[in-house]
Amino acid sequence: MSAGDKLPPACRYGDQCYRKNPLHFAEFSHPGDREESLPPAAKKARVHAPGDVSGGPQPSTSTSMPATNAEAAVEASASGGVNSNVVRDERGTAAAKSARISKPLDTKKPVEPAKPKDRLESKLYLPLRLTFTRVAGLDDDRFNQRSVTFSDVIGESGASGALQSALLFNYMFDISWIVAQCPRLTSIPVLLIHGFSGHDKTALHEDASKYSNICLAQARLEPYGTHHTKMCILQFANGLRVVIMTANLVAKDWHQKTQLVWISPLLTAPQDAPNGAPTSFQADLVEYLEGYKLAALKPWTEVIRVHDFSQVRGRLVGSTPGRHTTGIDRWGHLRLRALLKQADKSKEQKSCWYVCQFSSIGSLGSSADKWLTNEFLASLRASSVSSGLQSLEGSASLKLVYPCVEDVRMSLEGYMGGTSLPYNRSTAEKQPWLVSFMHKWRCENFGRSRANPHVKSYAAITSQKEIKWYLMTSANLSKAAWGCYEKGQSQLMIRSYELGVLFLPSDFGKSCFMPPPTSLEEAMGRAGAIVAPLPFDWPLTKYESSDRAWIVNEKSSKPDSQGCVWCPT
Fold first, then answer.
1. DSSP per residue over 429-446, as a string?
2. What's the order of all strands across the beta sheet hosting 322-324?
3. pLDDT at residue 276, rounded to an integer
4. SS3 assignment, position 167
5. Which has the closest alpha carbon to 480: 334, 322, 339?
6. Of 366-380, 506-520, 543-557, minimum mean pLDDT range
7. Catalytic residues
């Protein structure tokens, strides 16, 4: 580089910059930044850097290469691919060179006012529109740049305008904490959908009575069922936003746990009703709300119907309680099976591993083939139960991710964080076979290995590290959440409300997604790939012989990260 050549834009950290990634040196200049002063990897990056991924804050980088590559690759995929056809030279991007050709200003053409920027967009892993919740105690620059607080989710984002009304679905509510995150919730219509009864319901009503604008509606439940759906439908001055997440609306769930949040685009309401039939997401959302049979939700279904959902690329997978005999494939694991069959022309994905990651486990039966490797795995495979899934090959394709005792002990919260992993001894003792499927909780890609998982995610991954589908949901590994056949498979019994978003590569014009890369070379070699922000590391880490699955009511005498032992009563 000659002395007269123009350098890229200056890094905001100047000579204090600690970043190591050669992609960063291709994007920004530094004091004393001349070709001869750069490390060899950075020199190479000047010529072969990926395409311009501007449009938001630069991905987090650190000396921990996996975390750096995960951040960079997911962000780059949002702008057309990890390795685009735009190649930088020493003077900057091709777009920047073109911009240097000055053109006379057309003073006759009216200048349109700039639209307000949506601040939420810079926090999302596009195009899937997923993000993590912020974890206290992590390096913000490295691991929290692409993360949100509940205040971010529910507050004004710039483009949205002020919040006008809110519909909140959840399993747990702390109303005083909720309104503290967004004080506007004390003065606009707010409707909370809950599943409490008895003392819990009384306590929730007492908390809500302090705010005249907050109304409550109780969801109908089956015995032993829960209202586990976690969703916000938010009406802003400039449009509607749907948020589906894995976090309860209580402070601890937004503090030091691994959670995922899906945030829709800002959905506008055309002056005329949207043309044609509603999108599948829109129709499924209305059907899900109508399943509650609550009069309080009818105005909201009408609001949803008049908004434009054409920009939403995701499929709803929901569960509603009951014994379903008609439309049996509309809910639970049969809903997932139906969507995967529609998307997969081959009807069966024999070469995939099926990964289930969750924070709680229900009673699954005395052996794996009672439900897990029979009807549930059949749905993950998008095939029928009669496909021979009880064979060793079929069972071996199933991988479960759930923290072992050591994972919880060394977490940021220590043993107390294990209270959000409520697998209990009486259930575990009935299904000792389950441990053979278990893998440890690891999330080094996003710096969250020590943040206990409350997220629930499911995916199909091939031996070529291709993700054939990816689901983020509230549903744990239980028959109550996903449903189980009854009466010779003529009906599906579901006990709980659940809701998640399924991501199919075909909806994004792709044949597959890719997991976060584990090396810079891998990141730069994925031309046009969409990187999915899996909350678990791939490949998985299997339990060692000494590992035990975390059981919330079993004692642990070894001190945890806080210096405490665990003595549940």
1. TT-GGGGGGEE----GGG
2. 322-324, 491-494, 484-486
3. 61
4. strand
5. 322
6. 506-520
7. 228, 454
